[in-house]
Amino acid sequence: MVTLNAKEQLKLDVVSKVFTGKIKFETAIKILNCSARTLYRYLKKFKLEGALFVKHKNTGNRPANKTSLELEKNIVGICKDRYHDFNRTHALEFLNEKEKIKIPKDTFNRICNRNNILKKRLKKRRSKIKRRRDRMPEQGLMIQLDGSPHRWFGLRKTCLLIAIDDANSEIIYGEFSPTETTFACMNVIKGVLKNRGSFEVLYVDKAGIYGRDQQSLFSTKRDGFSNMKERLKTYDIKVIFAHSPEAKGRVERAFNTLQDRLVAELRFNNINTLEDANKYLREVYLPSHNRRFSIPNVASSYVPVIGDIDKEFYMSIKRIIKNDHTFRNENKLYDIQSNKTNYSGKEVEIRSYTDGKVLYFVDDIEISLAEVKEKQANAG
């Protein structure tokens, strides 16, 4: 027994009546809303097949490209077990790459909807229209740098700092650290200088790490730290301060993507230490991220850096040398090991490097010294 729907019943009724001469050919064309050529084809099929001509030949057959129940069940199980915190696009990428399961995006979305898995994140509606700022025309003109404290891996929050090129949204360098420290920011700047070269402008928020905002002297989060700004002067890099998070939207949007994708990948790969997280970030994640999200073939104005970059990045404090060639720092007394030069009254510069090394300089010449025990000093 063949069941016809309303459209098929109308087609059969009209074509049979044209075939028997009960309806004019022109009238049938208007009723069926088809061309004369199509109606001739219907009449030919009706003559050969009878009433069955209205049914498509694939009716009742299983589509050749239909996803099998076994495959759908397998996909649902994998997503619930391994990719439960991935977004749908990210999960589909991993199904293709890691599981070797290749299915169309629309099919995957229908499977997710049917089985209520990997729900889409709701996007917040913007409260007001924001004027879009054009990108820089060339790479190396502006680098945006910022940190994001988050539970990136493990049970505790860590801070991820990234430097992103404004021209093409490429993340040049990134580093996890316990907090957003001056040394951590220096490491990111060093990474950009080593990987690409010197650039024109560093665009940051008003953190005191980068010095005062000369246009708004009372608006920095912390004051008095100018080590970073002094180090940047070595490479003629200017610092510009953003007046709102929206102003540096390129790096803010990058963090949204990272919190959505990177957290899931770190969990998927059982990464729970700072060292492993930094290694995965630089060697695996960032190359893949930049291939997918950065803009290709943008002209570059980076200037290669010659010399030892590590030696140029340090924290510097100064102390006055006493008449007995001693000075005090962090409640410790130090004695300068030199009898040939009189350093009394001069400043000693204490340079602390990102790798933990500490060196001492007078008039930009490195000196050696020894810590003096307080009991020895008192006895003398």
Category from helices, strands and their pairing: alpha+beta
Instruction: Report the C-alpha radius of gyration, rounded.
Output: 35 Å
Q: What is the CATH topology classification name of the largest domain? A: Nucleotidyltransferase, domain 5
Report the uncertain regions.
214-225
Helix content range: 25-40%
Topology of this structure?
Blueprint: H1 6-19, H2 25-32, H3 36-49, H4 69-81, H5 88-97, H6 105-115, E1 142-150, E2 158-165, E3 171-177, H7 182-195, E4 201-204, H8 227-233, E5 238-241, H9 249-268, H10 274-293, E6 314-320, E7 326-329, E8 332-336, E9 347-353, E10 358-362, E11 365-367, E12 369-372, H11 374-379
Parallel strand pairs: 1-4, 4-5
Antiparallel strand pairs: 1-2, 2-3, 6-9, 7-8, 8-12, 9-10, 10-11
Helix pairs in contact: 1-2, 1-3
Give a brief rundown of this model:
The protein is an alpha+beta fold.
Would you give an account of this structure?
- The protein is elongated.
- The chain has helices at 6-19, 25-32, 36-49, 69-81, 88-97, 105-115, 182-195, 227-233, 249-268, 274-293, 374-379; strands spanning 142-150, 158-165, 171-177, 201-204, 238-241, 314-320, 326-329, 332-336, 347-353, 358-362, 365-367, 369-372.
- It contains 11 helices and 12 strands.
- It folds into 4 domains: 6-54; 69-115, no CATH class; 142-293, Ribonuclease H-like superfamily/Ribonuclease H (Nucleotidyltransferase, domain 5, 2-Layer Sandwich), CATH 3.30.420.10; 313-379, no CATH class.
